[in-house]
Amino acid sequence: MPCAERGTPLLQWSCRLLAGALLWSGAVCASGPDKHGPALVWKTEAPFEDVKEDLVSAIEGRGLVISYVSHASAMLDRTAEAVEGARKVYGDAEILLFCKADLSHRLVQANPHNIVLCPYSIAIYTLAGKPEEVYLAIREPYTAEPVYAPVVELLKGIIAETIGE
């Protein structure tokens, strides 16, 4: 039985207050990560622009510079007529690219072919017709290269900060 349904009225009130505060902060609305194909995906419920602003702040707050923003939904919308059977998948979809110098140096010093693991990326998107659900996703971690583990922790930390986990 949930705490808001048992105990004294004061305890019930306290549980409802805590649940309301968590819901307001976005912590209850966030979930994940869930594995979808080659992606780890988190979901939260907030306006896309607010989540994107929080994502940018979480990246830049670590002293990182976003080197490129891929406007994925705009590209797919622009090219849809040229692809038979194409349908609108996303409301908004962007991919933010960035690196962290010390981690990138460790990656390529371990194996110069690890350059394909840079830059790091976090996708932020909504699905068509569902603007209230915002997704954040990263590629499934490359576990064959142990030196990549700190990159995965960095990406997960940025997402956790963004969605209030």
Secondary structure topology:
Blueprint: H1 9-25, E1 31-36, E2 39-45, H2 48-60, E3 66-70, H3 72-79, E4 90-98, H4 101-110, E5 120-127, E6 130-139, H5 149-163
Antiparallel strand pairs: 1-2, 2-6, 3-4, 4-5, 5-6
Helix pairs in contact: 2-5
Structure description:
The chain has one domain: TATA-Binding Protein. The chain has five helices and six strands. The protein has helices at residues 9-25, 48-60, 72-79, 101-110, 149-163; strands at residues 31-36, 39-45, 66-70, 90-98, 120-127, 130-139. Strands 1-2-6-5-4-3 form a six-stranded antiparallel beta sheet. Helix 2 crosses helix 5. The relative contact order is 0.18. Residues 1-6 and 9-29 have low confidence and may be disordered.
Give the radius of gyration. 19 Å
Summed up, the domain count is 1
CATH superfamily descriptor = TT1751-like domain
| The CATH architecture | 2-Layer Sandwich
Helix content: 25-40%
Tell me the fraction of residues in β-strands, as a range: 25-35%
- Widest beta sheet: strand line-up: 1-2-6-5-4-3
Task: Give, in order, the helices and strands.
Answer: HEEHEHEHEEH
**Overall 3D geometry?**
globular
Could you name the CATH topology? TATA-Binding Protein
Which structural class do you get from the secondary structure elements? alpha+beta
DSSP summary: helix tally = 5
Mean pLDDT: 85
Distance between the termini: 24 Å
Main β sheet profile = 6 strands, antiparallel
**What is the level 1 CATH name?**
Alpha Beta
